[in-house]
Design brief:
39% of the residues lie in helices and 29% in strands. The chain is built from 14 helices and 17 strands.
Length: 440
């Protein structure tokens, strides 16, 4: 009678290979019944569990883990499906059985229900992995703590395309944006809007990509729309091999106060402290710029030289304080008549000069000078209990294109001013740049 054929040799070999694989497997593998009783387990599982079993008995896996992770048995008992994954890489810490110290290990459990009342558990010792992850987390936390503790510098990182990937607390305070509002956005959102489609950060990022880093200053705009002057340093971020650029760090500092201080110092160095007009040096620097522009564009420039009539008498009769008030008023009235693009400077004493830029042909300077003269003629200046009336004499010089020479025009305007004084004061005299001054 035939009782059946023996298994094929290939099937026997496959089974032996599987048993050999389970025997050598570096993780614990156990088959359990529906109550957690261990039915089968590989040698590594025996070695691992014997170290943590409090009574050194390997009967029920849920009981072995109960002192450290009682939730494991509860998860298995509450799993109602016929089959499925109960947990995956569920971590817990156990203290080693019989250890005289507080030695412990971190275990990872993956448990699968494969049929009614049948479980398979895979247990791995992940102590070293957990320690590495803990070290990495601690390092990240220390880094974030350092970055967030930096109050004077806003620090963010961006990817190679310019999109924000991290944002420290100082950046939140400086820019007004929370991290969730900016992460994933392009860094251009922090620059003032301007015409054209060019990215404000395009050139700085190109230079940082080429040189490894770039520092520049520019206006930035906060969430509330306010602007501030920023010092910005962009540095390339590379992978460990230092070969591939993966992004940039952007460190920003608000330098508005120092810029204002610099602007104030620059203003003090270039203006007359009494009247606020440009001082002689700054006036001629501006006049030279206009001269060069006229040479390039063949435009006309007018030079006005203004002098207060009988100013010495004002000082002698009413004192230098009254003279100072007169000079301040002259500048205020002249500035109200000229355009913002024109240049006004105090040449010395009671003499002032005006450069009219882009003058519309000859006699434009004469027209402006007459307006200034008439305006000042009708002004009454109160100094204490005294009301003063003043007049001015103005000499005007005009030239076009390459004939424009600021110093020569001032010399010619001075000659025209001398003529206005000689003709009775309170008048305007026009001379051409090539004219000789009176009395020369």
């Amino acid at each position: 009678m035939t009782t059946g054929s023996p298994p094929a040799p290939s099937s026997l070999n496959a089974g032996e290979d599987l048993i050999h694989l389970l025997y050598l497997c570096p993780v614990a593998i156990a088959k359990l019944d529906g109550h957690g009783n261990i039915l089968l387990m590989n040698p590594h599982g025996t070695q691992l569990l014997i170290m943590i079993s409090q009574n050194r008995e390997l009967v029920n896996l849920f009981d072995i883990f109960a002192p450290f992770a009682p939730e494991i048995g509860e998860m298995a008992m509450r799993f109602e499906k016929r089959a499925g994954k109960i947990c995956e890489e569920h971590r817990f810490v156990v203290r080693l059985n019989g250890s005289k110290t507080d030695a412990s290990v971190t275990l990872s459990l993956t448990m699968q229900k494969i049929d009614v009342d049948v479980f398979v558990a895979v247990i791995a010792d992940v102590t070293a992995t957990a320690a590495r992850e803990s070290t990495i987390r601690a390092s990240e936390e220390r880094l974030h703590s350092v970055l967030d503790g930096v109050t004077a510098y806003a620090i963010c990182t961006i990817d190679a395309g310019g999109y924000i990937t991290s944002w420290n607390t100082a950046a939140e305070r400086l820019e007004g944006y929370r991290s969730d509002e900016v992460i994933g956005q392009h860094i251009d959102m922090l620059a003032p809007a301007r015409g054209g489609s060019a990215s404000p950060f395009k050139k700085p990022l190109e230079l940082a990509r080429r040189d490894g880093g770039h520092e520049f200053q520019a206006w930035r705009v906060r969430k509330d729309g306010s602007r501030y002057w920023a010092n910005c340093t962009i540095s390339g971020l590379y992978n460990r091999a230092k070969k591939t650029l993966i992004g940039f760090s952007v460190i920003t500092r608000d330098t508005t106060v120092s810029r204002r201080s610099e602007d104030s110092l620059r203003l003090l160095a270039s203006t007359d402290p009494l009247t606020g007009a440009l001082n002689r040096r700054a006036f001629f620097e501006a006049a030279q710029i206009e001269q060069a522009r006229c040479h390039r564009s063949n435009e006309t420039m007018a030079m006005l030289l203004v002098d207060v009539d009988h100013f010495k008498a004002v000082n002698d009769t009413h004192g230098h304080e009254a003279g100072d008030v007169v000079l301040q008023r002259i500048v205020a009235e002249a500035r109200a008549q000229i355009r913002t693009m024109d240049v006004l400077g105090r040449i010395g004493g009671e003499e002032f000069a005006v450069v009219l830029t882009t003058a519309s042909g000859f006699e434009a300077g004469l027209t402006m000078a007459e307006r200034i003269r008439k305006q000042l003629e009708g002004v009454t200046i109160s100094v204490g209990s005294v009301d003063l009336s003043i007049t001015v004499s103005i000499g005007v010089a005009e030239a076009t294109g390459t004939e424009v020479d600021a110093k020569e025009m001032l010399r010619v305007a001075d000659g025209a001013l001398y003529q206005a004084k000689r003709d009775g004061r309170n008048r305007v005299v026009l001379a051409l740049a090539h004219d000789k001054p009176a009395g020369s």
